[in-house]
Amino acid sequence: MSCQIKLTANIADVPAVRRHLFPTDDNRGSESWLQSCHISMSPTGDVLALAHNTRLAVLTGKWDSSTSCNQFHTSQESSFASTEEPIKSVLCLPIVIQSQSSQVGPDWTCITVGFESGTVGFYMEDCTLLVSEQLHDEPIVALKCQSQHSPRPDVCRELKPEELYVIYPSNICVISGTQLFPTLRNARSQLARGQSMVDELNLLQLLNPKKWGFTDQAAVNDATVAGLDLSNTFNHLLTASTCGGFESKYRAMPPHNTLVLGAGSKPFLGFHYALEGGAQPVFSDMAKAVANKLKSALPGWLTGGKSQVTEKQQTISMQPIEPMGCRFGLCDLRRCANQVVLSPDRRLAAVSDSMGRVLLIDTQRGIVLRIFKGYREAQCAFLQVRDERKSKSAGKTRRALFLVIYSGKKGSIEIFGAQQGTKIASFTASKLSKLLYIGHGLMGFQVTTKSRFICQYTCLLMDPDGKIKEVVIPFHFSLTEKNSKRARDVHLYKRLKQFIKTGDYKTNEELLKECLNTCSELKTQDVQLLFIEMLSSCKELTPEILISCTENIIERCDGTSELKTICINLLDLSKFYHYLDSLEYEANGNVAQSDLNLDKREMINLQRLLDLSTYYQPKQINKVKFSPESQNIKLSDFLVVFDRNRTDIKLKSGASDAELFKVSEKMFKFYINGHWSDEDFTRMKETPVYVKDVFRLLLVYWIHRDLSGNADLEREMENFRRALLALASRKGLIEDLVVEYNRVSEFWNGIREILADSPKPFPALMAAILCKNVACTVERNVPEFFEGDVWEELSQESCQWTLLIGKLEDISLLNIILAIKLNANGDLPKLEQLDRTDVSLKFVLEKGKASVGEIVAQWVAAAGVNPSDLVANDLNELDQFEQLNVLRKQFPYSLEPSVLLANMCWEYALSWQKNVQNLGLLKAALQCLNQIPNLHIRAGLSNLVWNTHLKILFESACKLINKVGKLPTERLCRQDTDLTDYQITLFMETCSEFFDSFMEALCDSCNYQKPTLKYEAIWENGNNNLPLTELALGQSGCINYDLLHLHFQLTTCIHMMTVFTVKHSKIISNMFDASVSSHLFSDFLGKVNVIHHKCDSKTAASRLQFLIKIISATLETVTFDESTGMIYSADHVAWMAKCIALARVWNLDVDLLKRYQVVQIYSNGFDVLGNELLVTVTERSKLGPELVCVAGRRLNQLLAKCDDLGSKIAAFSTSLTKYLGTLNGGDWCESTDLRGIINLVTNSLNCMTESQPEYRMAKLMMDACKTMQDFNL
Predict the structure, then answer these.
(1) Residue 1037 phi/psi, 5° resolution?
(2) Which of 71, 707, 885, 1025 is the most buried (most CB within 10 A)?
């Protein structure tokens, strides 16, 4: 592969550009118009600027897919005729996006224009002025810049400070990028907002440019900054002693100097050094500055001047120039340098002079390395290329530097290696072209970062007709002949890869020709191996191309090598693929009589499964069917599944089922469907692929093929059997297929493992039946493998096939049923069914005895079936469970109601654990749990549910409420439990129901014996993982009832607090002894003694106070219907029953709570309910005085509402009046009429004895009420 001058862009309308640049010239600048223009191309390749005299044209590039190159169109034309300033230089600076990432790109392009007056203008792409300033009062010679990153950061990773260089005849002005580009961005943003700030900028303070003057050089035509000169100590001392003499003083450390190369005359190349930090001020300047400061501080009458002195503002052009020291130069009085360009690594420079010479300079040592003669008016550029091969050293990449020289007089471009100086290539070019060297990349980085942006162009050639060409040089041209072979091969390989990727060919013949040409030119085996691997993975490749290329490489390979082995295997596979393509599609290719001779019982079971799948299968939707020609696999997809690195071709171990099915479909589909003849398949069975893998491919196709709409299954089974028999008859395979009658064939055992692992058990079942038939046929045809005349009708091999077929029948039925939706719908939440439509036998066996129960439980839970319906179906089969009943006949033990409900409970609990806010899932789990018929399983599973799902959240909620002393706010609840305050109330209610059911099941299970779980025969040799029901049975006999009841007490208390929002401080520590509370939130299997009926007086008082609060709160649930006069108190009665139950457990005074309940009911005015509950009180003598108090409060309220208080109070005795006075300001009481008061006083008298002091007061109250009633007061 040689160097290229590649067309990469084109100016769409060259005449229009020339008309704008040369408006007054009839010849439009003539054919040499480019030589009189100043041109700059952005390194990103999107902006091109051309300037002549006072006119500027800006062109933007756009990709043209038809020509595969950029088309530059004029976007803006501008004229500076009003200022009458000719343009002397132009430079395009791509400004980077403001981002900290290394993945950055250009945001916009700043066009920098240098004028003859020394002014530099910065413009946007639409020629809108951003900033303009005169830096020096001289014509500008050139504009150059240095970017932080190289245009190719993948080649040169060195980071440099961003700087803009404005070159004048007497000096070079350096502007730092950290000051320039924020100013340009700010000006651009101001203009975008419609504000002009150009005149308001103090550029002297913002830019702060440095001016370095050229000394000891007569003329400077061009200059470039080579960067910091970091000399060593010896060179520093040598320079100091040479320049200053023996007695000179010197610094211990060498100063940092910036090297500037000035190209001109006398000397024609000067090495100027600018001291970093600036020159020291002269003493006279310091004295003048101090005097001016003192003068400004004195009053005006003393100095004789005005009080305010207006000083002329200093501009950038008035800034003093810091002279650089020209330490040495390359002197030749007759030679005058015209141009100097710097290499990307700044170590080399190319200088063109007036004598037709190009000098290659070492900038660090200051010597001329090479002189190239015969290049008048030469234009030079450097091109740096990286080695595209991976280096052995990490992080190191080889690079090569080339010098490109364009000679307009000769009309040629010549390329030289900068290291050796040898000419590499020479091209003919137009004599009026222009070489563009772009040495900078993206500009405007805010911080130092490693950018990965690769600029598009670095070296271009622009022709007068508008064609822009790129110079492309392969790396291997920098190497010697010995080392360049592999580099050249790599370049050829990548060129072909790009050729295939871009699709630069119209026919396969062109691609074949290009591949063969590249293949014949490759010399090294490692690249040839890459070439072959690339071809084998190419989607567009045809088998003819791969056959031709592999044959070419095999002919040139000597001996045996990895490359030759791979090529031979690829050749065999390509020929085999080509043979498969050449077979013709026949409508009736292999019509033959069926000769299956299968076992009658197996065929009956197979037919039953077929009938079931047809019966339950939903109606098929008519779909578009494609012709056989359109269902074709690419050669690359065919080859990818094979391991070609061995002598025998085998399948890759990591090949997916989808990839294998595509290959198997290509090999066997048309024969199985009856569209190939037997002769075709007889030839095809001699495939180069390893025979065991061919068996595997045949099974993969049979298992994964589409069975929908299949009208001739028996014919396909016969063809599949004949294909198996044909493959089994291959040479060298009989010894693996047929073994002694009491042994098992390793080959057939591997086939059985494939069938057992199949996710589609029904096709695997048919394959197993046919494989068993073929195995028996092969055994009968090889009698010499058996000793004597003894023949065992039932061999060990046949037993293995029978066992496999039986298991596959069970799993096939399971898959058929699970593929449909259960018709029985219920009220429970419908779980999302897992994507496990196809269950393999291997999965079921590895999962263990619980696998079927778990899978069916998920299937039933997906329909939301009511647990009670499942229990009822066990007693009497229901029509809605038709599919489930079919499964139960096949798996009677795994689908018992207790087993199924236990797994459903666990599935709902797992779903709730993923979304704890959905408490409906938890309730559904408990519904399933409560319906489990077997009490031992129910009790044990309850303990598992508690430990696994409920305990952690329950403990968090209880500790939070104990800490706050009431139901917390929603924010606190979410913070600790991820539940709202309302959801915590519902959760506690559910937990209370859970513990209640748990204790009931545990108590009742003591009256029954533990059941013995049974399982189907399919798991005789399967995994021994314990099912959920066995784990539950192992827990039921070891649960501590007292510990369980302790948690029930706590749950009931917390539930009461959350429902009625009752406050009670430290409910856990105040209502439970320390010896008891330490056992809370522990495992129920712990053997600990819990005594909860004995406690100290403080705990008993706290418990009693809590229950009294709850009883008072529950009265809010009692409602009165005024229309019917009915009192509804069911909720209150239920809560009161819970309070009484807790009081009895805690050994509290139950009668006290009942008395309190009756008193509160009368106080609220529910006399009918109070009369009913009055009989429940045991110690009525204690109740009577309290009822008298309630009656007195009622009487006070009655008197307070009457108008004639004086007449009514006359009926009261003095003692009664004083008693009623003591009741004022007491507890609230519902007001009633006089009859209600009389009834209440009557009840109180019935409860008391005459010896009690309150009895006399009740009699007085009764007399007063009757007096009022009799006289109608």
Answers:
(1) -85, -5
(2) 71
Name which of 348, 817, 469, 302 is nearest 609 in CA terms: 817
**CA distances, 173 to each of 116, 119, 408, 1248 (Å):** 15, 12, 31, 117
Whether the full predicted model's pTM is greater than 0.70, yes or no, is no
DSSP 443: B
CA angle at residue 692 from 770 to 658, to 5 degrees?
Answer: 80
Burial code (b: 16+ CB inside 10 Å, e: under 16) for 507-545 equals: eeeebbebbeebbeebeebebbbbbbebbbebeebbbeb
Annotate 912-942 with b (16+ C-beta within 10 A) or e (fewer): bbeebeebebbbbbbbbbbbbebbbbbbbbb
**Could you say which DSSP state residue 1227 is in?**
S
Residue in the block written with tokens 């690419």: 634
DSSP assigned state of 649:
B
φ/ψ of 1128, rounded to 5, equals: -105, 115
Name 508's Cβ contacts closer than 8 Å, sequence gap at least 6.
Answer: 542, 544, 545
φ, ψ dihedrals at 800, nearest 5°: -65, -40
Answer yes or no: are the C-beta atoms of 1080 and 1042 closer than 8 Å.
no
Strand partners, 61: 72
Give SS3 for 399.
strand
Buried b (16+ CB within 10 A) or exposed e, 244-283: eeeeeeeeeebeebbbbbbbbbebbbbbbbbeeeeeeeee
**Three-state DSSP class for residue 578:** helix
- What DSSP assignment string belongs to 291-360? HHHHHHHS-HHHHTS-SS--PPPPPGGGSPPEEPEEEEEE--TT--EEEEEE-TTSSEEEEEETTSEEEE
Residue 91 phi, psi (nearest 5) = -150, 130
Beta partners for residue 167, in sequence order: 142, 172
**What SS3 class is residue 204?**
helix
Nearest-angstrom CA–CA distance, 814 and 128: 77
Place of tokens 């029904």: 762
Identify which of 283, 260, 280 has the alpha carbon closest to the alpha carbon of residue 270: 260
Q: Say if residue 267 is preceded by a cis peptide, omega within 30 of 0.
A: yes
The pLDDT value given to residue 306: 46
Angle between helices 1180-1201 and 1214-1222 (to 10 degrees): 90
Helix (H, G, I), strand (E, B) or coil at 1098: helix
Helix axes 1028-1036, 851-861, angle to 10 degrees: 100
Rg, C-alpha atoms of the chain: 50
Q: Which residue ranges in the chain fall short of pLDDT 50?
A: 198-201, 279-284, 306-313, 591-593, 618-630, 709, 786, 788-792
Q: At what angle do helices 484-502 and 525-536 cross, to 10 degrees?
A: 10
Tokens representing residue 74 in the block: 């004029």
What are the residues whose beta carbons fall under 8 Å from the beta carbon of 467, sequence distance 6 or more? 7, 9, 10, 11
Extract the tokens encoding 810: 């069970």
d(CA 1002, CA 1007): 10
Q: pLDDT tens digit string along 195-230?
A: 655 444 455 567 788 999 998 899 999 999 998 877
Q: How far apart are the first and last CA of the chain?
A: 129
For the beta carbon of residue 66, count every other beta carbon within 10 angstroms: 6
Residues 211 and 136 sit within 8 Å (Cβ to Cβ): yes
Contact, 532 vs 570, CB < 8 A? Answer: yes
Q: DSSP for 511-559, please give it.
A: HHHHHHHHHHH---HHHHHHHHHHHHT-TT--HHHHHHHHHHHHHH--S
Q: Which residue has the tokens 């030289």?
A: 416
Token match 């070419």: residue?
552
